[in-house]
């Protein structure tokens, strides 16, 4: 049984939607950063921040395989049960007219916020479907431009954010030497470019 402070801390962690999505994914099987990033359409940097937080709180455990890939999995299964009990004999206080007006205004504001949230979620789901469709098209057309899944792993990571080599090395399953070699090939093909210390996807027109 968790203490009150532990329950409060756990609820704070689970209050984040993306952390709940990561936990649901890890219920299915252990995953590494790039895999989580691809499945949930989150930037590798954001995934790492969520994973590190949950690892510090001992919700997750990590281990490395022979290819240096760091896998994360749940240390415990998590089930949150909320038990609401009705209290008999409780009467509501009388509500003055001005309080009733404020109450109805709050309800109306709440309704608008919920509907705006629902609309945003609908738009997000549509965008995620479009992203998945476009990614499928990129994979289908990759012949002649990228060699294999290793190149696609780099492209996926750089699609989320411009990254330094050390950041790519942290989220990639490739060795540092292989990562450098593949980045060089992608630069020569005009797919990736390096600006100062960061790598990024090269635009159609370049800069």
Structural summary, described in words:
With about 210 residues, the chain is mainly alpha-helical. It folds into three domains: about 5-75, Orthogonal Bundle (Arc Repressor Mutant, subunit A), CATH 1.10.10; about 95-140; about 150-200, Arc Repressor Mutant, subunit A, CATH 1.10.10. The chain has helices at about 5-15, 15-30, 35-40, 45-55, 95-140, 150-160, 165-170, 175-190; strands spanning about 30, 60-65, 70-75, 165, 190-195, 200. It has a three-stranded antiparallel sheet. Strands 4-6-5 form a three-stranded antiparallel sheet. It starts with a helix and ends in a 6-residue tail after the last strand.
Q: Helix- and strand-based class?
A: mainly alpha
The largest sheet has its strands arranged as 1-3-2
**SSE order in H/E notation?**
HHEHHEEHHEHHEE
**CATH topology-level fold name of the largest domain:** Arc Repressor Mutant, subunit A
Number of domains: 3
> What helical percentage do the residues reach?
55-70%
Assigned CATH superfamily of the largest domain: Winged helix-like DNA-binding domain superfamily/Winged helix DNA-binding domain
Distance between the termini: 58 Å
- How does the major sheet shape up? 3 strands, antiparallel
